[in-house]
Structure formats: C-alpha cells, structure tokens
Design brief:
The chain is α/β, with parallel strands linked by helices. It is 29% helix and 21% strand. The chain is globular.
Length: 214
Amino acid sequence: MAKKLGYKRISVLEFGVAKGDGLLNLEYHAQEISKMLDIEIEIYGFDTGEGLPEPQDYRDVPYHWKKGFYKMDVPALKAKLKKAKLVLGNIKETAVDFFEKYNPAPIAAIAYDFDFYSSTTIALKMLEAGEKYYLPRVFCYFDNVVGKEVELYNDYTGERLAINEFNYAHQNMKLGSPYHFLARKVVDPWCHRIWICHFFSHSRYNDFVSKEDQ
C-alpha cells in the first residue's frame, strides 16, 4: 500500500516489548522488506522497562496478569538493537509527546501487546494524532484476543473491550477484521489477531491502489 501510494518512509510500532524478541524480529523483516520495496522503515518499541504495572480493575484481567511480568533487561536489549528506538516509560506519559518528540514517518503497522485494557485504550487513542502520521489503512495486531482455557478472553474485558470501545467512540475511524485471512483453507491463530484500522476521512483513503487491468 505504501509503495503504491508513493511513500518513501513508513513506521512500525510495537506496544509491549518485554524481552525484545518481537522488536528484533521486526528489525530483521524491516531490513528485508526495505530492500524489496525501496522504502525506509522506522521501528519504535513502547514499554515501561519494569514489566507490567498493577492491574487497575477486572477489565485488565488480573486473574491472568500480575504486576512485574515481562520485565525488560534494558541495557542488554539496547545492545542488540540496530535501528529500533525504545520509548521507555508509562504509556500515559510517553503517548503525550511521542509524535512531537520523534516525528515518525507515517505508521503502516502496529503490534498491540500491552495485555491490559487500560494501557491498550491509551495506545489506541494515539490513532487520533492525525493523517500526517498514518497510512489510510493500518494493519493492527492484537496479541491477547484469543487465549486458551485460563484466559477466556471476551468482548467485555482486555484488548477486545478496548477495540470495541474505540469503534463505538469514532465515526471516521474503525478497526475491522480482514476477512481474507479468515477465508484461508488453513487459518493460523495469528489470522484471528489482525485488525485493520480504516481512516475513512484520510485524504488518501480513496486513492486507487488496485490492479489497472481487472
């Protein structure tokens, strides 16, 4: 999409870095994709560095998450990273000045792995920053929306509640499922974790990106 729309630089965000395996994988794949598409890819990883904070209430699923889970070894991770930038601190503070401080290239994809409803809600609010900072359609991965017998995720707690409330609150921005993933002959678990954020009022939302010879 970015290539067809003529973008030269894009950004990818990860909310919830933990030990950093995902961020390191993002670096590897971004390097390969940059070569293929001739597009520069910036990477930003958000984390407290201190592990999960205290769950605020039942919406943060405290029967599954505990304070201190996923604590980061900050010096060790920084030594491994080649280009990704760590944005350390509570999302309540880092979300406020991120765009002013880093001026990221338009964001094309976001991985939400904050686990909690409360922090995911704050991260989703960053989608209101304006079209300068986003492609007209942004791929969003939510890590904790399926789970197993213990988690029993539902639409009234956790990341799913944050998604539903976001959609209810925004008329010109909606998170929707990419149904082509769910129509595959083999549907991998990650297919159920992808949403697309559609920015309907984006000045480039209607730009033609499909095949000319349909």
